[in-house]
Each structure stands twice: as C-alpha cells, then as structure tokens.
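Ticket #4471: structure export looks truncated?
Reporter: QA, pipeline team
Priority: medium

Steps to reproduce: submit the single chain below to the structure queue and open the exported record.
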Amino acid sequence: MATETSPTLDPQDVAEQLSTRAEHLRAQLAQVTREDDTSHPADVLDLATKRQAAEQSADQATAISARLAEVEAALERIREGTWGACLVCGEPIDPARLEVLPLTTHCREHAST
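Actual output as written to the record:
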C-alpha cells in the first residue's frame, strides 16, 4: 500500500503537530482525572452535585481518551509510512482533505464506511 502525499504536506510536520496535540490531550486528561473531589458531601444535594460532576468528568475523560487514541493512531501510521492512504482501498487521500482532517483514515469515497 503505497502512500503519496502532497509536497505541501510533510508527514514529519504533521507528526510534530500531532505530537503537540497528544501532549495537550494528555495534560487535559490528567487534569480531568485529578479533579476527583474526595471530600464528603454535607447533604443529599451536595451528594447529587458531586455525582453529576463526577459523571461529567468521566464523560470528558472518555472523550479526551478517544481523541488521544485517534491522534496516537495517526502518529503510528506516519511512523509506518501508511498515513495518507485510505484504509479501505489503499489509494492516497486527497491532500486537501488531509490538511483539514489529518486524523482521517479514509478517502472521500470511503469516508462513510
């Protein structure tokens, strides 16, 4: 599966940008998971508020973890030399699409698969 990229898209530049994004996501994830309040609620309303905050933190952590996994997968494809190739057909993904969506794994034709 050969990968062709636009001369304006240097995979190493993209890797640097994605590495920076991954660092930010790891920091966000650490902050969200660190925000666990261990104090004891004073009443039922406090308990409900803390539970809601914990659920929101868990949802945020899940979303951040999913985004981090996408970024790390793109970095792995760059290391393997397969970044920029559609995972379905193996054809090069349009460089304009990659510039806008560097995490994409599919060409336009297979984007909905």
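Status: closed, not a bug. The export was complete when the record was re-opened. Leaving a note from the reviewer for reference: The first helix runs from residue 11 to 34.
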